[in-house]
Write a structure and sequence with these properties.
Blueprint: H1 3-13, H2 18-37, H3 41-53, H4 55-65, H5 74-80, H6 83-106, H7 109-128, H8 139-156, H9 160-169, H10 174-198, H11 204-227, H12 233-250
Amino acid sequence: MDPLQAIAAIILALPASPVFWGLSASAVFAGLIRGFSGFGTALAFMPGAGALVTPAVALPVMIIIDTVPILPFLPRAIRHCNKRDVALLVAGCAVTVPIGVWLLLVLDPVIMRWAIVTIILVLVAALAFNLRYRGQPTTVLTFATGLVSGIFGGMAGLSGPPVIIMWLAGQNNAERVRANTMVFLASLTVITGTTLFLNGLFTLRAVAYGIALMPFYGLGLFLGARLFPLASERTFRRVAFALIALGAIITMPVFDNVF
């Protein structure tokens, strides 16, 4: 049986599996969050999916479902995003992700993860009380945020929050924040997907799950995108703050045995 036939056979057998329907619910929810806010796929999908099929399978599945369905949203996001900022952030992340992984290996990971979560929650709390700076991020600040984001990502899988916090702290409106985040995360998907592929994580099972779950994720994206224009600036920021805080909380070491 060639790989395509094997993938097709796995897909045809999936509807009989309760695991598949649990993954489908996670995919719809993740798509809804991503379509509305521009980020949050990992926050919404990985905890439940990782528990159902292990993180090693869930991560490539997430990459697959977030690749094709998000494409129709990217042209508009690219038009409205700050291309210079996105490029600087991606460049910074590319430099420091390996450093974050190295630190995770040589330092006490539990202490480092607690430190990262604490920093993120303090920043979110400050922003929730409307402590913001005036003007736009400088080149140095933007690139430095990318460097921090890469380290956070390598150590704890939290690449997104530092970047989103930076954008929310400034004077960007909801549409600009959402567009920036969509393009930034799409760029990181390419980097992450390449790394996973080179490490052999795109198994036949993962590819089959990814293909089968795309329609569910796409449905969530569509619904989330329809909800976005209905939200005020205040509502958008509140949802974004809540998602970042939730993502930090569920990655606390104390929850390792839960998820």
